[in-house]
Design a protein that fits this description.
Layout lengths: L2 H7 L13 H11 L12 E6 H16 L18 H16 L6 H9 L9 E8 L4 H20 L3 E5 L6 H8 L5 E10 L17 H4 L5
Antiparallel strand pairs: 1-2, 2-4, 3-4
Helix pairs in contact: 1-6, 2-6
The structure holds flavin mononucleotide (FMN).
């Protein structure tokens, strides 16, 4: 698989088969992704690969905390105020997903139910949690994104499916406590990892992208 093909194949997968990728396969993704560049080679990534009972335990605690409305991320992921063109793009994405699932705008209960699937990593057998040291600055967060994309592209090449998930970082204290991670490590996000359930409706839609002319200028 060449890079462009991997970029095309990668998509956010939201339903997985009940089949766990082997540890050696997961290690090969991490060993590949660690080749990503970072400022002065700081390599700011720190990850935990979580499956089995530990994943279930975190899930249960997080779902309880969600019902009790106790979320507090380590950082602000989405803008506090949505302006164009981001507002429309966000809306389009949400509509696409809920239409695919047959969930109407009015059916708030089903929307909440679907949202809660996030905290189960959409049934993926593995969640990889990504941490960064508190002392590192925005530049290192830039480096981190490169690692995450490398990881996901390699997963595609190996026939695995992923979903990068900020929602998995909504309850960082629970995750840190369960994984015995220092408070000086911020939880950035999780990636759901496994094999795609190709029959699931939710995996049938693809998001669009803006035309190049809308976000890129050439000068000479
Ligand atoms: C850092 C990051 C966090 C995300 N968090 C979530 C999430 O919590 N739940 C979810 O369903 N999708 C999440 N997504 C997936 C985006 O919705 C998705 O990437 C976007 O709509 C483009 O679709 P595609 O990934 O299928 O190309 C996240 C993506 C990124 C990069």
């Amino acid at each position: 698989m060449d890079v462009l093909e991997a970029l095309n194949v990668r998509k956010s997968t939201r339903a997985f088969l009940d089949k766990t990728p082997s540890e050696s396969l997961i290690k090969s993704l991490i060993d590949g992704a660690k080749l990503s560049p970072s400022g002065v080679n700081m390599q700011p990534w720190e990850l935990c690969v979580v499956g089995g009972d530990k994943k279930k335990k975190i899930e249960t605690k997080v779902l309880k905390a969600f019902d009790e409305k106790k979320s507090k991320m380590d950082y602000q992921y989405y803008p506090k105020e949505w302006k164009e063109p981001y507002k429309s793009r966000r809306k389009e994405m949400g509509l696409l997903m809920y239409e695919t699932l047959g969930i109407t705008r009015e059916d708030k209960q089903k929307q909440v139910q679907q949202w809660k699937e996030n905290y189960k990593a959409f049934g993926a057998p593995i969640v990889v949690y990504f941490f960064i040291d508190k002392t590192l600055e925005v530049g290192s967060w830039l480096d981190y994104g490169m690692f995450l994309q490398s990881f996901m592209l390699l997963a595609c090449e190996k026939g695995l499916a992923t979903c990068p998930m900020a929602s998995l970082a909504e309850f960082p204290n629970i995750v840190r406590q369960e994984l015995e991670i220092d408070e000086n490590k911020l939880l950035l996000c999780g990636i759901a990892l496994g094999f795609e359930d190709k029959d699931a409706k939710v995996n049938s839609f693809r998001t669009s992208r803006a035309k190049l002319e809308e976000f890129c200028k050439f000068y000479s």
